Every structure is written in C-alpha cells, then in structure tokens.
Q: What sequence folds into this?
C-alpha cells in the first residue's frame, strides 16, 4: 500500500526496498507523553538503540499535513518543543489534520496506520491505550485496540498502565482476535511494574519466535496485528504501592476536574509523572529503550524470513 499523502524518509525507503529491518516509533509519546527536553533526548536515544540493534528507526508523525515515516532531528526537536500544543492524532483526527496542512503527534493507532502504509511491520512504544476504568459507563475505549484488530503491525509495548482496566482491555483484545504475547513472561506487565495479576495468551522467549508468530498470522491473511508485552527490566521497575497511589490520585483529579475524551489519557499520564517526581519518567524511558531493542531484534528476524 502507498499513499500520495505519505513521505518516507530516504534512509527508511532504502532499507525497506532492500528488505532490511525497520522499526516504527510513535510521536504522541514525544509531544504528550514526556516533558521537554527529556522527550527529545529520549526520542533520539530510542532511535539510537534501534540502530545499535541492527534496524533503521522510522519515527512517525503528521507535519504540515504530510504523513511522515522517518523524521529528521529537527522535526523531532520541533515536536518535542511544541509539546501539547501539537494535536494528539488518533484515527479520527487524520483526515482533518491532513486537509488543513496541520501537525499531529501520532498515537499507537495512527502510528500503526502510517507504518502499514509505508510497509513497516513492527513498531515499538511504551504503553498502549485500552479500556478505561469505568468504561461500562463512559464507553472510553482507546482506538488503539480497534487498530490492533484491523492493521497488520506488531506492536511492542510494556503492557498498559493501570490507569486502565487491564482485565477489560484483555477481554476486548480477545474479542477482537488480537494475540497478546508475553516476552519472557506468562503475566501481562503493567508498564511501571512487571506484574499485573493477569495472564497473557502465550509466553514467548525469543525474537525468532515472535517473528515466526507474526509470519504465521500474515500467512493466514488475518486483518489485524498483534501485541507483544515486554516487562520493564527489574532494576527499573517501580514500587507497586507508590505507583498505585499516584494512579488513584490522578484518577480522582481527572474526575474532579471533569476531564473527558481525548484529554483523559494525556491528563492522567502527566499527573502520574507530577505525583511521582522524576522516578516514573526514568522508568518510562528505560522501558521504551528495552522495547526498542526487542523490536529491532525481531525486525531483523522478520527480514531474514
Ligand atoms: N499510554 C501510555 N503512554 C502513552 C500513551 C498511552 O502509557 O504515551 C499514548 C499513546 O500514544 C497511546 C495514546 O496510543 O496515548 C492512547 O490515547 P487514548 O487513550 O486517548 O486512545
Ligand atoms: Mn479515550
């Protein structure tokens, strides 16, 4: 698939044409997920980690209405500095942003869409969106889950934060037929901590096997993608009691201030960072780097098949 709206960076285009490994990265984590300048430093470090593990990084965003697969340093700096003034772009936002020539920071959903247009099969991030707590009343379910159900990209994450209802998120993924794989674990990791109390569908212990499962899914012409959940390295994991308390407080603040819709996730993420000082930010950075390395190794295996 291709699109006249898409700009693939030359290095990414060459790697794809030669069948070399490429890993996509999202930009909401840059503009909305972390404060400046840590966000830019992290984005560049994540790209470097992908290179160190033998793949080419393709950070994805919307700039001036163009869908971008592969950003320059200046473009990453621009998105990081602009921060939350850049629109958070999920699936429903892309048409208007493109038509208006606007900028957008891509979520997991739109990063998958643009990666797929460019021919990139694997994408590394921190955490995905999911079914929010109280969704039985609010119906707040991230478009990320719907995208996993329909776009054939493997997403490598560290699970999901317990700002979400993790049990309902797994139920939703099961209904939609999205495989949830645990890397070196049978338990779904909860982003800042290695454990959640919920089980993944399959434990997988090597990038080769991840690539083989992805290949099998493609060979069956399934529509959707798959989710790889990679626990944060133990030395960077947070204390469960500390993080749970911050999440409860963030949820209360969101409720009190009447935060709704697309603002909910960025509000909760920023509040948790504010309440836990720099600790959660450091953990966040480490887990993204860990996911980038695994995605790059898996991309290398996919290229050999
Ligand atoms: N969860 C995180 N970190 C993030 C996000 C979610 O732990 O950065 C971002 C991702 O870009 C994700 C988006 O795709 O938030 C989901 O937003 P929503 O819940 O509004 O769909
Ligand atoms: Mn939502």
A:
């Amino acid at each position: 698939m291709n699109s006249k709206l898409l700009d693939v960076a030359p290095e990414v285009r060459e790697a794809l044409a030669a069948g070399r490994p490429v890993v996509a990265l999202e930009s909401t984590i840059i503009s909305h997920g972390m404060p400046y300048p840590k966000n830019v430093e992290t984005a560049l470090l994540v790209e470097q980690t992908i290179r160190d593990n033998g793949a080419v990084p393709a950070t994805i965003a919307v700039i001036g209405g163009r869908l971008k697969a592969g950003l320059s340093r200046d473009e990453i700096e621009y998105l990081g500095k602009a921060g939350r003034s850049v629109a958070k772009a999920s699936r429903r936002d892309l048409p208007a942003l493109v038509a208006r020539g606007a900028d957008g920071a891509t979520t997991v959903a739109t990063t998958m869409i643009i990666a797929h247009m460019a021919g990139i099969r694997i994408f590394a991030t921190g955490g995905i969106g999911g079914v929010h707590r109280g969704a039985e009343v609010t119906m707040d379910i991230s478009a990320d889950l719907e995208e996993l159900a329909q776009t054939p990209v493997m997403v490598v994450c560290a699970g999901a934060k317990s700002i979400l209802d993790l049990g309902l998120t797994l139920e939703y993924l099961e209904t939609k037929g999205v495989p949830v794989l645990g890397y070196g674990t049978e338990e779904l990791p909860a982003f800042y901590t290695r454990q959640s109390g919920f089980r993944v569908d399959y434990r997988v212990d090597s990038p080769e096997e991840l690539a083989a499962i992805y290949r099998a899914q493609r060979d069956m012409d399934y529509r959707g993608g798959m989710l790889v959940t990679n626990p944060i390295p133990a030395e960077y994991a947070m204390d469960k009691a500390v993080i749970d308390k911050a999440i409860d407080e963030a949820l209360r603040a969101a409720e009190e201030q009447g935060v709704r819709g697309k603002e909910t996730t960025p509000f909760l993420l920023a509040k948790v960072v504010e309440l836990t000082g720099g600790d959660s930010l450091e953990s966040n950075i480490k887990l993204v780097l860990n996911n980038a390395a695994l995605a790059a190794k898996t991309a290398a295996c996919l290229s050999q098949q």
Notes: The first strand starts at residue 6 and ends at 8. The chain has one domain: 3-304. Residues 26, 28-29, 33, 90, 107-108, 126-129, 142-144, 161, 191, 262, 265, 269 surround pseudouridine-5'-monophosphate (ligand 1) (CB under 6 Å).
